[in-house]
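Researcher: Let's do a round of design. I'm pasting the structure tokens now; please hold your answer until I've finished.
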């Protein structure tokens, strides 16, 4: 009996590591493919947020954290000065979303509602993380210019990610069993 449990845990850990690597790459590619620069700060609007949220919602905080680090890979290519900050801000964001959706799911039955709350809180961390960094680097007034862009990026990511998760759960109903074991 103990061997089965250890084997199941090993498979789960292997799966989590593989999912983390795949989603970090997806976030990097999605971030690089669509870039709208914010001239005042050197930052940019991108679509990588979507896959951070999808990873965190489907696979939890560990995968969400590593998916978030994929954005810093993109920053090395697009805006290197942001890479260290992005590494921290997006990793924390992905972890928070995965952690919070898990916590909320134990108290609220509606997965969509849990996902929305988790993303709003994790997204708020992202928005504020960049706001603090940009305030320090460029001044408060310049940071205010980027603030609405980051809010829109978070909200767009929320809408698209929650939609993708619903499609995944419809197309792969067996995935619900995996989620039920996780939440």
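Researcher: That's everything. Go ahead.
Model: Designed sequence:
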């Amino acid at each position: 009996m103990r061997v089965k449990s250890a084997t199941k845990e090993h498979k789960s850990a292997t799966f989590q590591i593989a999912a983390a690597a795949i989603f970090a790459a997806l976030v990097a590619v999605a971030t690089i493919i669509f870039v709208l620069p914010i001239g005042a700060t050197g930052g940019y609007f991108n679509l990588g947020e979507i896959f951070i949220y999808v990873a965190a919602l489907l696979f939890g905080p560990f995968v969400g954290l590593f998916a978030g680090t994929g954005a810093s890979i993109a920053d090395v290519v697009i805006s290197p000065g942001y890479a260290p900050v992005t590494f921290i801000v997006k990793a924390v964001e992905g972890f928070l979303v995965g952690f919070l959706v898990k916590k909320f799911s134990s108290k609220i039955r509606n997965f969509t509602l849990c996902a929305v709350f988790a993303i709003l809180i994790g997204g708020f961390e992202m928005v504020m993380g960049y706001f603090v960094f940009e305030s320090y680097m460029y001044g408060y007034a310049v940071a205010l210019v980027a603030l609405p862009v980051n809010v829109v990026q978070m909200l767009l990511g929320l809408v698209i990610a929650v939609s993708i998760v619903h499609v995944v759960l419809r197309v792969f109903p067996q995935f619900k069993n995996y989620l039920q074991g996780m939440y």
